[in-house]
Amino acid sequence: MKISELSRRTGVPVASIKYFRREGLLPAGRATAATLAEYGEEHVQRLRLIKALTTLGGLSIAATRDVLATVDQAENTDKTLEAISYALPVPVTAASAGDADRDAAAESAAAADVMDLIAAMDWQVPGTSPHVRGLTTALRELRRLDADYRPERLVAYAELAHSIARLDLERAAAFDDSPALAEQAVIVLALSGPMLELLRRLAQEDQVRRRGADHPDAE
Amino acid sequence: MKISELSRRTGVPVASIKYFRREGLLPAGRATAATLAEYGEEHVQRLRLIKALTTLGGLSIAATRDVLATVDQAENTDKTLEAISYALPVPVTAASAGDADRDAAAESAAAADVMDLIAAMDWQVPGTSPHVRGLTTALRELRRLDADYRPERLVAYAELAHSIARLDLERAAAFDDSPALAEQAVIVLALSGPMLELLRRLAQEDQVRRRGADHPDAE
């Protein structure tokens, strides 16, 4: 199909398609003339994946390129899943929380909380994981907030997170190692988060409304 | 305390403190001289909350102002919780997914999926909720991705999201209607999401590693 048809099929403007080509996110079409290229279904699927990662997944163009490169180099599904997981942006980083704001006591206390949690959950994760660092930063800031913060509460959240990850991986487990199925893994890993957040917000709304109904005297 | 001490206590630069003052996020200190103001513990707590919302919560200054205004106008905890929930940025919006990309069939199918899910969960949420719109957009894009997408799977995620929201609200339920405790509610609602995402990623890492260990022949 021509680029105009590719644009119509995917809802991605022609200019954006050309941009993704230049940035190396989208493979070239088959040249049919000096200025014409023929695109196929693989381009439609890849464009939809790029769109999902950059919009729903909230990935930058650079992060999207990293994730797609990982997908295209897929050796086996497990390695691909870990590589994708590490390529996705981490919601909390030390930088995002402000490195200027150092507090050795809170930092080490938070690091201990994270290690205790990982031990309690018997999670096999390296201390170098960006998610370990992110969680440590988040707990450090919560400690500094004097929030009603109790490390033991984390276990309840961690157990639910574990169940959610099991759902995610059940979907990924069916995948063989073809790039097409690695793409499905990207969708699962990158888009489960935003979807889960929306579901959690809806459930919060429901429970707040029910609380209001339970004791209208609260009005 | 002087502004320099306030900065030291919170790790927020003096220039940022003055900026938050100008933007109306932080109340004025008690003037002790033409150019001097005395700040108290309430300023320390408010600055830490602003920092948590803007860094860990990923809120813009405008969104932070909205949330803090909601906190300060707290009538009762339930109303405050809903107002805060609506003031927080929605992870997926129609705009973020590109309004140019219209697909009436996918749109209505997604809307039906969301309504079915809400009915299945017996969630009391208005169709006007930004989270209903966000979820509809997310499902529309997933449908268009030809992802291995099955609406019935959503129920399993929704049930876990429901349990997580219960944990969130259990923490909020203890709060009375004082602004200080409304602040705790903000922390719960705004920061549970990023924390949960990190826990989910850690659990995914653990399960991927165990899968690899289960069948090393996959190497």
Automatic annotation (TrEMBL), chains A, B:
Keywords: DNA-binding, Repressor, Transcription, Transcription regulation
Pfam families for the chain: MerR_1
SMART domains in the cross-refs: HTH_MERR
All copies of domain HTH merR-type, residue ranges: 1-70
Highest rank taxon of the organism: Bacteria
One GO molecular-function entry: DNA-binding transcription factor activity
InterPro entries per UniProt: DNA-bd_dom_put_sf, MerR-type_HTH_dom, MerR_fam
Keyword Repressor: yes
Transcription is among the record's keywords: yes
Name the UniProt record assigns to this protein: DNA-binding transcriptional MerR regulator
Taxonomic source organism: Streptomyces netropsis (Streptoverticillium netropsis)
